[in-house]
Specification:
The protein is an alpha/beta fold and 476 residues long. Helix content is 41%, strand content 23%. The protein is built from 15 helices and 25 strands. The chain has a 7-stranded mixed β-sheet with strand order 15-18-19-14-13-21-22, sandwiched between helices. A 6-stranded mixed β-sheet has the order 10-9-8-11-12-24, with helices on both faces. A 3-stranded mixed β-sheet has the order 1-5-4, with no helix packed on it. Strand 9, helix 6 and strand 10 form a beta-alpha-beta unit. Helix 2 runs antiparallel to helix 4, helix 4 runs parallel beside helix 5 and helix 9 packs across helix 10. The longest helix has 21 residues. The protein is globular, with a radius of gyration of 23 Å. The chain starts with a strand and ends with a strand. Bound molecules: nicotinamide-adenine-dinucleotide.
């Protein structure tokens, strides 16, 4: 019988007789069995974090920084096994799993440095009055994490939380909780106090919901869908708890006639095939000037045809989707896309042979869609690119901004004035010019406009979300 992995609470592993199976998306087989935490385990985790935070908030910055760096070193010491675990539970190609482990370590290193220069302010209001602002932690922070980049996403909010004197309760996604559990252990092995990092596994509607409403939580970092983000925002509003909402996207690459297509093509392809398109910042819409439309679409179709699909250990261009449900959902969008546009490439389920019972689909390219179509508007979360064309800059901006999302955009042009106008006018949290890709830049503040969320993680901005400002006014 498979061992049941307990939740990590106060340094102990807790089980409760209720379990959740974690599948390997490359094979469909059971990879591990975790505990489905309920309100009792969540309560124990929040109490442990509250207790630990009483002294952690007083620990010197230099000591916090040292421990964060130690976590980064321990992650890198087991980069290979963490990378394999990340790929096994998500299906992402093994080179991406290794890279995600490295980026997780980068967050701990980055915030180890950033916290050392995270100064508030002091000034004299008048001859007798000194004003000092202090950054104070929220207390216990909750981290609700999706399955697509578990290590990277947890790394960014956990490292910034611990750096600023908070303690944490982490709820990884039920589909991919294994690296979150290991990261929790690594933090304790690095010397973080028992209870400072707790990991409660289980289903969103039960474990996640219980964590969200727990009165001991002072801040919630949520990364996931708009739908669940709304539920959590409502719960947080009841208790007036601050939240960071890192939600979905339907991000565009906008390609002008003066773009360097040699440079643009591979980046655009990677932006939608990376992690099989299951990336919040995936470049899911191609908005292209009519003069270069045919050329670019045929280049992309060629690259889609050349992309390898397979199990994570073969290090293909793209692995499987996360679940059978997600695969069926993507295939339903293929049918919708066939009606709303022209299928240029792909659209099929892949099974048998090396695909076995895994959750594989071909990359899919749908051309000639309009801004009202569902495949243009909705986040599909698969290797699924839709194409719309424009004739002038105003149309390009209108198309780029025509969804409810505003996470990332790419602009491809050799005209610097046009590039600047696009950066100004496109409504998104990050706008790349002649480049695309939010992952990798731990230094770059990241987060959404519109329904892609609010609050910022990553970079120095990430620290601000984890503190509240207290102003002391001392009159001589
Ligand atoms: P999801 O919203 O279904 O789940 C995210 C997390 O919330 C999981 O841990 C889940 O267990 C938990 N959850 C579910 N219901 C809950 C509830 N009622 N109360 C509390 N917690 C609950 O998202 P997903 O399918 O895991 O991830 C895909 C989504 O995440 C996509 O929309 C993607 O764009 C988004 N995403 C955003 C970012 C970003 O930084 N903006 C990054 C990655 C993914």
């Amino acid at each position: 019988m498979t061992e049941v992995l307990g939740a990590l609470v106060g340094g102990e592993r807790l089980t409760n007789g209720r379990t959740v199976e974690v599948l390997n998306p490359s094979t469909g087989a059971v990879l591990a069995v975790t505990t489905d935490c309920g309100p009792e385990e969540i309560d124990a985790a929040v109490r442990a974090a509250t207790e630990a935070q009483r002294s952690w908030r007083l620990v010197a910055v230099a000591e916090r920084s040292k421990l964060l760096r130690r976590v980064a070193q321990l992650i890198m010491a087991e980069q290979e096994s963490l990378g394999v675990l990340e790929s096994a539970q998500t299906g992402k190609p093994i080179s991406q799993g290794r890279r995600d482990a490295e980026l997780c370590a980068r967050y701990f290193d980055f915030y180890a440095s950033a916290i050392e220069t995270f100064y508030a302010s002091a000034f004299s209001l008048d001859a007798r009055t000194e004003v000092v602002t202090r950054f104070e932690p929220h207390g216990v922070t909750a981290h609700i994490v999706p399955w697509n980049y578990p290590l990277q996403i947890l790394g960014r909010s956990l490292a910034s939380s611990l750096a600023t004197g908070n303690c944490a309760v982490v709820k990884p996604a039920e589909e991919a909780p294994l690296t979150g559990l290991r990261l929790g252990e690594i933090c304790l092995e690095a010397g973080f106090p028992l209870g400072s990092v707790n990991v409660v596994t289980g289903m969103g509607e039960t474990a996640g919901a219980a964590l969200t409403v727990h009165p001991g939580i002072g801040h919630i970092s949520f990364t996931g869908s708009v739908e669940v983000g709304r539920i959590i925002s409502h719960a947080a509003a009841e208790r007036l708890v601050p939240v960071t909402m890192e939600l979905g996207g339907k991000s565009p690459n906008v390609v002008f006639a003066d773009a360097d297509l040699d440079r643009a093509t591979p980046v655009i392809v990677n932006s939608i095939l990376q992690n099989a398109g299951q990336t919040c910042s995936a470049g899911a819409r191609l908005i292209v000037h009519r003069d270069v439309h045919d050329e670019l679409v045929s280049r992309i179709a060629e690259k889609f045809a050349a992309a390898s699909v397979g199990p994570y250990q073969d290090d293909p261009t793209l692995g499987p989707l996360i679940t059978a449900n997600q695969r069926e959902r993507v295939l339903r969008y293929v049918e919708i896309g066939r009606q709303e546009g022209t299928l240029v490439f792909g659209g099929n389920r892949l099974s048998g042979g090396k695909y076995g019972e895994g959750f594989f689909v071909e990359p899919t390219l749908i051309d000639g869609v309009d801004a009202q179509s569902r495949v243009f508007q909705e986040e599909i979360f698969g290797p699924f690119l839709v194409v719309a064309s424009f004739d002038n800059d105003d149309e390009a901006v209108a198309l780029a901004n025509a969804t409810r999302y505003g996470l990332v955009a790419g602009v491809w042009t050799s005209n610097i004035s046009r590039a600047q106008r696009m950066v100004r006018d496109i409504v998104a949290g990050q706008v790349f010019v002649n480049a695309y890709g939010a992952s990798g830049g731990v230094e770059l503040p990241f987060g959404g406009f519109k329904e892609s969320g609010y609050g910022r993680e990553k970079g120095a901005e990430g620290l601000r979300g984890m503190v509240q400002v207290k102003t002391s006014i001392v009159v001589a």
